[in-house]
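> run fold LPXTG cell wall anchor domain-containing protein
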Amino acid sequence: MALTAAPASAAPAGLTITSPVNGSTVDSRTVTISGEVFGGSTVTIRNADDTVELARTNVRGTFGQPAPYSVTLPAFADDAATSQTVIVSGFYGGSGIPQQRLTFSLPAPAPVGNFTVTAPENGSTVESRTVTFTGTGTEGSLVNVLNVDGSRAADQARVNSAGQWSTTTTYADDAPVAQTVNINQVTGGAGRGNATVNFTLPAVVPVGNFTVTAPENGSTVESRTVTFTGTGTEGSLVNVLNVDGSRAADQARVNSAGQWSTTTTYADDAPVAQTVNINQVTGGAGRGNATVNFTLPAVVPVGNFTVTAPENGSTVESRTVTFTGTGTEGSTVNVLDVDGNRAAPQAVVNGDDQWSTTVTYSDDAPVAQTVNINQVTGGAGRGNATVNFTLPAPAPAELPAPVITSPTEGQTVTGTQVTFEGTGTPGAYIGLLVVPTELVEDAAPQARAAAPAPADPADPILVDENGNWTVTLALLPENYTVVAIQAADPEGATGLSAASEPVNFSLVAPVPAPAGGGSGAAPAANPTNPTLAATGGADPSLMFGIAALTLLAGAGALVVSKRRRVLN
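> ok
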């Protein structure tokens, strides 16, 4: 065979070192040196004194053409110096390859003390034949869980950035209950801790305790929402699967009482004939199964669901609203606001296919309301409707009693008219009850016996924006007691207040001017038939102001009671 010499411009045998870089720090105390050299070469690694060969490799490839090489050195001991130098050389074509010195730094040795096994505890009995081994260690290290014969008992784990490791395995039913594992950590190619753990597996669970209690095989269920129930081994998982292996219901877990349950709702287009395969998994192994055939109810038509009240777009009479309608017997009806919250308690359609539910809206609820009402039959929606309606405005609170400021208590007024003044709530309407004082003991029956409100009621007495009111009325000379009330509207229907404190005053006729005196005084009003601003007539119990004057009938009694307190 002819030998091919290296090109004159290249290093003999073309030896290069690409890793580790000269002067760098390596990641592990097990160091691999790699680069390129001509095919057919032998690469050797020797110590810095060139007295000991540490490793060598024969490089394949085309003779005389560059080929990759890789040589792994024996792991450096924990007490080895961090700074290391090796000599890389070898042979090519029967001649030595010129030496290259490579210097690098080793990482500090990982401490052994950080390796622990936290589960299972030595000497413990685990709850399942699926066992999770956990512990702590050095980030990036590998952890091996081995049987006593050296075979793997679980997959190799790697310590994460939080210094934690975990690996899981499932022991077969025929595996002995007494188990021993040897667990070791390998850091930078060197062992960095180990532990032996003895533990006991649970005995294999017999299949016989697994049952399916509902639905019964061959039965017809009442609803398209089906609950599967049964018994099993505590902690086991139960799977309800369709014949194609997909889940028919959520996975269930057997509770401490040995019971399991899971529920699913079949769609409207699901066939009425159903078959499910149900199995129990205990400790990672199947521990019982059953096949159940059952029939779903037919889908209920939507058309029988209606909302009869309130009508869409209507205004209801009260803030207590009753929702009514028709539906399918036994179905539930939900009245929801636009946010999906319940606007009224859930209703159930009765034997006459009727449903009803009532709610009272708070005073601060908006007058404009929208509800979404739906019927649920057999676990599925069977009709819905949206209803918009308007609530009445909330009744205002009772206004405070007004105050009469003029005339004042005990004042004598001269003339044929009296100007009443006082204070009240801005925007409110004032009503006055004027009673002859000598009849005050009979004020209540007099007021009740008074003629009904006249056809032409008085103009409203309105409290101005500053809270003041005034009215001038024509009266007969007399000793009077007057009381006032106020309301939020001219009819006195809302916010009607209690009566004011009564005011007693006297009205005396003016002294006529002497005949021919030429004083120019106006003539006195007709004392036998004064003009009454509120009533248009004469009456010993005079009511003025609020149109619904009959509401003042009871004020006579208030005058009597307050008058008595004054007299006493």
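Residues 1-11, 443-457, 517-541, 547-568 have pLDDT under 50 and may be disordered.
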